[in-house]
Amino acid sequence: MARFTRLSSDDRRAQLIDVGLACLAEGGILHFTVDRICKAAGVSRGLVLHHFGSMAEMLTAVYAHLYRDTVPDLAALPPETRLEALIDSVVAPKAFSRDTLAAWLALWGQIAVTPTLQAEHQRQYRVYLGQVSDAIAACAMARGRQVEARPLAVSLICLIDGLCLQQCMDPDALGPEAAREACQAFLAPHLG
Predict the structure, then answer these.
(1) Number of structural domains, the chain?
(2) Is the pTM here over 0.90, yes or no?
(3) What is the distance between the alpha carbons of residues 128 and 85, in angstroms, rounded to a whole number?
(4) Each residue's pLDDT tens digit, 155-189
(5) Is residue 153 part of a domain?
(6) Which residue in 150, 43, 158, 105 sits closest to 52, CA to CA?
(7) In a domain, 1, yes or no
């Protein structure tokens, strides 16, 4: 008979989210199953559904957690450090690892077909885009430059996403330092 460890609701949710991320990293969306998660966490099927309601809701919680874990709250940082903090966070070893990027790929692939995940992505992206736009505007202002911050922020986010995709597909082709340099080279003509 399996032995279960009693955890607080918050700790159990955190454990299940970590296990869900590990399943995504290991085998993509095909490994994100109730049975696999239950086995890895040592819990019953009912406990997973008790904490999340459905696998779509759990997938959404995993996505929100990964966003919070990867992207810093730029608004909480001094304006002059925001862009550097963003770049540092997305190319940090944990964020730029094969496992994290594999989880992102699996989640990105589900956005179009999972309404709750799509809504969470839209919410997270609006916040992210707003913070990156504000960071670019603050940096430009501090350097006496005028830029269209929002389109530049969209382009920077797309560059970061592309660098992450490349790193996931071929880890030997692009390392964290090369990714950092690519972001800085992209921003330099606009911000000095």
Answers:
(1) 2
(2) no
(3) 13
(4) 999 999 999 888 888 888 888 899 999 999 999 99
(5) yes
(6) 43
(7) no
